[in-house]
Design brief:
The chain is an alpha/beta fold and about 260 residues long. The chain is about 40% helix and about 20% strand. Strand 9 and strand 10 form a beta hairpin.
C-alpha cells in the first residue's frame, strides 16, 4: 500500500514538473515573438490605436535603416512626404513613451549587402524569426512568398468590415454614375463601394436602397443594390398652369383697353 502511495506521489510530482516546464516554454516563445515595423506602418499611424487597444502583445522592432529613411524624407523637398515622414518619427517617439503597454526596440543590424529597404526588412524578419507589420501591398505579397508572416492593417480593415446581407435596407448618397447607364455609385460609412441600379439620375441625392448581393474583390468588398423608392427627377417639372401665353404685338394692341377721348372745351 505504501509503495502505491509513493508511486502516485512520484507521478503527481512528474506531472507538475512537466506542466511548469510547458508554461515556461510558452512564456519563452512569447518573449521571442517580434514584430518588425516598416516606414509605411509608422506613417500610417494606426499602430498607436492598435497598441492602445491591446491587440499587439509582441515586442515591436523598428530597424535603424527605417528611421534613417524617415529622416531623409523629412529633410526632403516634397512637402507632402516631408510632413508624413515627420509624423512617422512622431509615432516612433510616441511608441517609446508607451513602455507600460508595449516593448519597443531600435534594431541597429547592418545589412550592407542589400540596398533596398524592402529586401532588408524581409531579410531581418527571417534573421529575427519575426513577423512584419506594413501597409505596403506589394511588400506584403513579396514577404509572403519569402515565407515571412505579414500583418497588414489595410487587409485587416477590409476583412472586419460589417457584412450587408441581401434584403437589408440602406440610405446611400449617390456620388457618381456607374459603368452601366442606369447605375449610380455611393459609399458606405466604412468606405465600401455600393453600386445602385436605377440611380444614375440621382447623383448628388440620398436614396433608399435594398442590398442585392456582396462581391469580394482584391481591393475589398463591393455591395450591389437597387433603389426601393421612386427617384425624384433631377430636373424639376415646371408648372405651366399659371403661365400666361405669349402674345404678339398685334394681339397685345388688340387686347389693350381703349381710352376715352376728352374734347377740350
Amino acid at each position: 500500500m505504501e509503495y502505491i502511495q509513493i508511486i502516485l506521489l512520484l507521478v503527481i510530482i512528474y506531472l507538475l514538473i512537466m506542466k511548469t516546464d510547458k508554461l515556461s516554454k510558452i512564456k519563452l516563445f512569447d518573449n521571442k515573438t517580434k514584430l518588425i515595423v516598416d516606414s509605411c506602418g509608422l506613417i500610417d499611424g494606426r499602430i498607436i490605436e492598435i497598441v492602445n487597444a491591446g491587440f499587439i502583445a509582441q515586442e515591436l522592432v523598428i530597424p535603424q535603416f527605417i528611421i534613417n529613411e524617415l529622416q531623409m524624407l523629412a529633410d526632403g523637398q516634397d512637402s507632402h512626404k516631408r510632413e508624413r515622414a515627420r509624423f512617422g518619427l512622431d509615432i516612433v517617439h510616441e511608441l517609446q513613451q508607451m513602455g507600460d503597454m508595449v516593448t519597443l526596440t531600435i534594431d541597429r543590424t547592418l545589412l550592407t549587402e542589400l540596398k533596398a529597404n524592402d529586401d532588408k526588412l524581409i531579410a531581418l524578419s527571417k534573421q529575427k524569426k519575426a513577423e512584419l507589420y506594413t501597409t505596403d501591398y506589394n511588400l506584403s505579397k513579396v514577404a509572403a512568398v519569402e515565407g515571412v508572416k505579414v500583418l497588414n492593417i489595410n487587409e485587416l480593415a477590409q476583412k472586419i468590415r460589417p457584412v450587408n446581407l441581401p434584403g437589408e435596407d440602406l440610405t446611400i448618397k449617390i456620388v457618381q454614375r456607374g459603368s452601366s447607364p442606369d447605375q449610380g455609385v455611393g459609399y458606405l460609412e466604412d468606405g465600401t463601394m455600393i453600386v445602385v441600379d436605377n440611380a444614375a439620375d440621382s447623383v448628388g441625392r440620398t436614396v433608399e436602397v435594398e442590398v442585392d448581393r456582396m462581391h469580394q474583390t482584391v481591393a475589398g468588398k463591393m455591395v450591389f443594390a437597387h433603389a426601393t423608392k421612386p427617384l425624384e427627377s433631377p430636373k424639376q417639372k415646371t408648372d405651366h398652369s399659371n403661365i400666361q401665353p405669349t402674345l404678339s404685338i398685334r394681339d397685345r394692341m388688340a387686347h389693350r383697353p381703349r381710352q376715352s377721348k376728352h374734347h377740350p372745351h
